[in-house]
């Protein structure tokens, strides 16, 4: 498999590292020349490394997978298993790199990758925190061994969810909030904050990274899960570059307010 490791130029090792899972657009693309850089560049500029695996069915590894919609086929189940293996092998590679701090690994997922954030981290105990951008449970039925509902309670690391109120793909009441409630992260410090960002359509981009990754990761007994409503619009569903850039800026602003 292929994985791209991006290293910050000025940061000193050992480096905290984020493993990224892209949105569903990666299924249609056939070249990793079109990686989703706007959603990871601010992480790199904050002094963290980013590993961007090419998962089965995406980019150059495209196959018979045509959609991120789950179904009850063995093909979907096998792809979920393959994505788990891809994630694990990617982390195996990170463990061979002396400049990487493998004790501080985080998962970042966008949209489809956010939905997989309720499943894949449950199978990989080397992940210590998750940042999920416009995530939610998929509403389509899948086989039990590939159903997010069966894995979310086993995700027990700190989680930051950044969502939009009128997201029609992952509706708030039917998809976002059930994920928030079912995540297995200890709820002693669970918080839910709704932020209406009043930033202009072209706000200055922040290089501070997500509030969830800022500073040391929480220790034992300090885990939490946060739900942040970042927009009153259909966040994350307009695939045009200007809209994506605006929504990303809104997510960053909301993350700073959470911190």
The H-level CATH homologous superfamily, spelled out, is: Alpha/Beta hydrolase fold, catalytic domain
Number of strands: 8
Shape: globular
- Which percent band covers the strand fraction? 15-25%
Note the main sheet.
8 strands, mixed
Account of the protein in words:
With 259 residues, this protein is an alpha/beta fold. The chain has a single domain, classed as Alpha/Beta hydrolase fold, catalytic domain (Rossmann fold), CATH 3.40.50.1820. The protein has 6 helices and 8 strands. An 8-stranded mixed β-sheet has the order 1-3-2-4-5-6-8-7, with helices on both faces. The protein is globular. Residues 196-212 and 232-244 have low confidence and may be disordered.
Characteristic terms for this protein:
Rossmann fold; alpha/beta; 20% strand; globular; eight-stranded mixed β-sheet; 259 residues; single chain
């Amino acid at each position: 498999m292929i994985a791209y490791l991006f290293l910050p130029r000025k940061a000193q090792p050992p480096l905290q590292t984020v493993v990224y899972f892209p949105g569903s657009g990666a299924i249609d693309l056939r070249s990793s020349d079109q990686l989703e850089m706007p959603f990871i560049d601010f992480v790199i500029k904050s002094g963290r490394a980013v590993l961007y695996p090419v998962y089965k069915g995406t980019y150059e590894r495209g196959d018979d997978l045509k959609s991120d919609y789950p179904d009850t086929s063995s093909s979907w189940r096998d792809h979920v298993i393959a994505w788990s293996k891809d994630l694990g092998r990617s982390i195996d590679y990170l463990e061979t790199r002396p400049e990487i701090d493998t004790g501080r690994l985080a998962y970042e997922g966008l949209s489809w990758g956010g939905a997989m954030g309720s499943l894949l981290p449950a199978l990989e105990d080397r992940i210590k925190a998750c940042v999920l951008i416009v995530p939610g449970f998929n509403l389509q039925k899948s086989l039990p061994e590939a159903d997010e509902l069966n894995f979310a309670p086993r995700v027990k690391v700190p989680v930051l969810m950044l969502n939009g109120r009128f997201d029609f793909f992952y509706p708030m009441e039917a998809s976002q909030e059930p994920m928030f409630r079912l995540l297995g992260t200890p709820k002693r410090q669970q918080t839910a904050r709704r932020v209406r960002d009043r930033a202009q359509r072209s706000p200055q981009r922040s290089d501070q990274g997500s509030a969830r990754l800022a500073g040391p990761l929480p220790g034992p007994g300090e885990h939490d899960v946060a739900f942040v409503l970042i927009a009153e619009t259909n966040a994350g569903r307009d695939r045009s570059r200007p809209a994506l850039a605006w929504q990303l800026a809104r997510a960053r602003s909301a993350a700073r307010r959470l911190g």
